[in-house]
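Pilot study result, target chain (315 residues):
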Amino acid sequence: MLKVVQQKNIPLFTKVTVTSLNKNDAGKITGVALELPNGDERTLNGKSVILATGGFGASKNIIKKYRPDLAGYKTTNQPGATGDGLELAEDIGAELVQMNLIQVHPTVQQDNPHTYLIGEAVRGEGAILVDAQGKRFVNELGTRKIVSNSIVDLPDKSAYLIFDQSVRNRVKAIEFYDHIGLVVTGENVNTLAEKINLSPEVLSQTVSEWNEAVTNKQDNRFGRTTGMERQLSKKPFFAIHIAPAVHYTMGGIHIDKKTHVLDGNGNVIPGLFAAGEVAGGLHGNNRIGGNSISETVVFGRQAGQQSAEYILDKH
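Predicted structure:
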């Protein structure tokens, strides 16, 4: 993208803060107000503005406003995901929709200052989740919402992913998790249990019951039907401590299919477009994994096309 910016000689402004969106008496967008690092203020004029500032997963204030039950959660998002674009749009009359719909990811290692999302592939290749006693408590491959709620309902509000070398061989990301110190290793199940303060007897029984379920292709406890291709039997054994964290915000700025931003009456705000996680209402109650990439590609392209058409055809 930077190469294209240079090739097209497009002005690029960094280390500036957009403080407001500007519009004229007719309600059309005319540009943005900026604040420079030294505190000076500037106006950047433009016939259209595209908001592509991401979601609000790292905004404690916005989450507390719409989902106070999640106010204490950590997030997988980068620190800049503070919902600034939503506030800019709302200040000029844009409607925000579905702001209470926030996706929580169930398996996030968060014992360190930085959070690390442990991907579904670990469970998909055969890992199980156990509580502080070493017992399974949920279908590990249920929806993120179901698994997250089940973990939060535990007394410790956290759990352990348990897996063996065969799972590790299938998921290369585990090498990274181990490299940064997230993985506990035990030569056998009992040793692993002792290292993470679980009952060796209970964890051994849990693993044995799971291996029997894999053999019979039937999980009588929780009805799991996928990720059951291999037993947990190849030494050594591993554990990752996890808990749910805010991952994705489905709510955001109300747009139409052409990325026009809409006000509270459903009218288009001329010259204002939004794309990506800053926009709301595209995923319904719970985003399906991978769909945020599709959203970015499809609606990012649409926003570029529509803003160009707006300028060339009408303004």
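One observation from the pilot: The radius of gyration is 24 Å. A full batch analysis is planned for the follow-on phase.
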